[in-house]
Structures are given as C-alpha cells and as structure tokens.
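Work Package 4 report. The design task specified in the project plan requires that, given a folded chain encoded as structure tokens, an amino acid be chosen for each position. We show below one input record used in the internal validation round.
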C-alpha cells in the first residue's frame, strides 16, 4: 500500500510540473573494453553507434529518458546494441539557450561475436553515468553532445578461459525535438 501511495504522490508531482516530452537521435563513437582473465589481455572494440531516445523533461532541472543504441557491427561481431534508462540533472547556464547535464544510467548491453564456429556472448547489465551539454537552437529544437561511461557486467567462458566485458565508453552528438 505504501508503494502505491508513493507512486501516486510522485505521479501527481510530475503532472503538476511543466513536463515536456522529447525525442532525440545521436551518433558517435563506442569503445567496448574486455579482459581475458587467464592472461590479463585487454581487447578494445571501437565502432560507430547510433542512438534513438524518448524522454520527458521535468521542469527545467531534470529529465528522464529511455534510449536504444545500435553499434555498427564489424569483423566477427554478430550483435551489438543496448537499451538504457537515464535520469539527468540539468543546470541552466544561459537562460533558455545553454544547459549542462549529468546523471546516472542503467540498462542492458547485448554483445555477441562469432568466429570459426566459436561464439562469445558478453551480454549483460550495465550501469554508469553520462554528462554533456544542450544548446537550444529554436524553441523546440536542441543540439546535444556528451559522454557516457558504463561499467559492463557481461562475462563468458571459451575453452575454459573467462572473458569479461569491462567498460563501454561513448562520445555522441545529436539533436532533440521537444513537443
């Protein structure tokens, strides 16, 4: 019962605030780092990523968003994508024009690689943070750029050797449309 009451209070507070939904697209660079535990060998996979975002501004000081990121596969990579939920605290710098943001991110990364019949699956949960800047170029159009650092939990064993996904680092630039 307490959970329901808390949800009602939060929803009422959000509905009373000046909420503005938005959609966004971005492109950038993604670098997944993994470690082979037996030897300590580190591997880095560096590719282009594309992200689509649905979100909601909460007043002018926060926003929540759901993002889907597709990483362009290269070489033996079969699947590489992920979904994330983020909450950003927004700091207005120049009235209605320039903002800085920072916040936590949680989600799931899917990463599957196959070579010569050997499959590696480093899919798993991720968590971390993001920070960046938003420039409002028109009333409903924004340009955004930022950096996302995620700790990966995916792990797999190949021929008795454990491979762990360590971090995912993403630089991005994109545009948002506010409604």
């Amino acid at each position: 019962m307490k959970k329901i009451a808390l949800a009602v209070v939060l929803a009422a507070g959000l509905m009373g605030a000046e909420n503005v939904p938005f959609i966004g697209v971005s492109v950038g660079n993604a670098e997944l780092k993994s470690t082979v535990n037996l030897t300590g060998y580190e591997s880095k996979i560096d590719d282009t990523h594309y992200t689509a975002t649905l979100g909601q501004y909460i007043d002018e000081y926060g926003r929540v968003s759901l993002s889907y990121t597709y990483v362009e596969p290269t070489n033996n990579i079969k699947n590489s994508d992920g979904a994330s939920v983020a909450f950003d605290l927004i700091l207005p710098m120049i009235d209605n024009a320039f903002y800085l943001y920072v916040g936590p991110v949680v989600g799931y990364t899917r990463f599957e690689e196959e070579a010569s019949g050997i499959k590696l699956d480093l899919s798993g949960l991720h968590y971390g943070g993001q920070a960046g800047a938003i420039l409002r170029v028109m009333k409903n159009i924004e340009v955004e750029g930022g950096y996302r650092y995620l700790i990966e939990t995916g792990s797999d064993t190949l021929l008795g050797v454990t491979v762990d996904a360590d971090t995912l680092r993403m630089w991005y630039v994109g545009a948002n449309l506010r409604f």
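The first strand starts at residue 19 and ends at 36. Validation will be extended to a larger panel in the next phase.
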